[in-house]
Amino acid sequence: MQCFNCWETGHRKHRCKNDRKCRVCKQTGYAPGSSECKHYVDPTNSGDVIAFQGKSYPLYNFYPCHLNVFGEKHKTMEEHAYQMTKAIRAGDLEAAKKVIEAGTALDAKRIGHTVKDPQGWHKEKETVMEEIVSAKVEQIPKVKAKLENSNSSTIFAEGTFDMQWGTGLDVDATLHTDHKMWP
Ligand SMILES: [Zn+2]
Ligand SMILES: [Zn+2]
């Protein structure tokens, strides 16, 4: 258990009595990504880093697009494909159906979260995601172009507190802190 406010272990954010602490430099009073942080970088001058978050970024997993993956039966978005696969592997076909019908990526994600992880999912989910992302690169020209123009930049998903797929520092930290200084 780790607190998302002060980063100490043993309690959660809603019970935290400490001041907010920057996760990168450990100073109190501001979040990582704030210009007060000594690792702050001006995002317009950090050309070696490409961070993405939000539906307007083609690399983002909620980017609206249609993909053909895992057979041609379903036209789906990245998040839909992932949550659908998880539900099917878990044997929860009702949830899988709901995922397919979900109007937005966020809905798909919420439904997916109600499904218990199938056995061995922690080992398999990266392979599943890789297949989906490969399909996205092949099928969506904007995604392909984005990657081809990235040269040797470091690319990462700006996912707040997402330790699995994102960077996990804080909502602004990736854009505004030097990634070489991350904890
Ligand atoms: Zn705390
Ligand atoms: Zn800091």
From TrEMBL:
CDD domains listed in its UniProt record: NADAR
Pfam family, one: NADAR
Domain CCHC-type, first and last residues per copy: 3-18
Segment forming the signal sequence: none
InterPro entries: NADAR, YbiA-like_sf, Znf_CCHC, Znf_CCHC_sf
Gene3D superfamilies: YbiA-like
Alphabetic keyword roster: Metal-binding, Zinc, Zinc-finger
Any GO molecular function: nucleic acid binding
Protein name: CCHC-type domain-containing protein
